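Hi L.,

As promised, Spore coat protein U domain-containing protein:
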Amino acid sequence: MRNVKDLLGKLLWLSLLFLSCYTPAQAQSCSSNDSLRTCNLGGTHSLNYQPNTKEIAFTLRSRSAFSGRAFSYYAELAPLSGNSFTLTADNGDILDISFTLDPSNSDAQSLTLNTLAGPFNGSRNDTNASLLVEIDNAKTPSSNQYTGSFQLTLEQYFLVFVTDSETVDFDIILEVEPNITIRHLGDVDLSNSGISFGQAIEGHEDFCIGGIGFDRYKVNLSSGNGSTGGTGTHPFALRGASESIPYSISFSDNLNSNNSSFPGSQGDIAGSFIRRTDESCINENARVYITVAPSDWEQAGEPIYTDVLTITVSSQ
């Protein structure tokens, strides 16, 4: 019985022990100036293209180096290369951007080249601030990543004299998620009405290929009744109740000429094509041509033949 009491006493004593661990605050990356500094602005910032407004959050303080009191400041932003606010992709494509400095304790102001913005209200302690980044949406990105390097300069003034200054370099990586789309693709009606023996039956369909985050695309065509997409003996085939008719198909990335490309045995169109519009795809910019040879349709023994043609486009 005594052994049981001793054990309970030990368990009770153990239950009163608490483990206390100190969890340090997340380390900040601050510029070296104690009186005029930013934290978490220097370095690399990855932004997503999709939101309308992109934000780089950091902290900022501006106080007198002598009294420690809040002291107003001015700001100027400059690119580390070139003479404009832009982001550049590996393929050379350029996006124009603009910046706004938005301290939580002062009114937001746009930052322009070779111009001091301000004055902004100072603060004795680190205060939340952000750089708002706007992308010129007049141009559709043709790459999935854009980069740029910039330098923010902060300055305190007494009359016309600079009393303190600080510079911070930072990089921006803009990520663009590629998206490709096909619109306005409809049915193609083929008929031998008005077609004389010895003439091919021809038809075509106009549609749109567009997207964002890429500059070129590839095309594959496959037939549900043909060997490119099914079990037929011909790459592309129309099928009736008990028999099939082969047809040929070609692709053009414009509507102005018949300089179209024919697919290989697996349905792939050789080469790649330039993306000409964005995701909205308002106007048609591509075409497929379908041809049934006279030697094939003249032997048809059924009134109706159909096929499901699949057009696959892949961003490059």
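The first helix runs from residue 2 to 15.

Thanks again for sending the construct details.

K.
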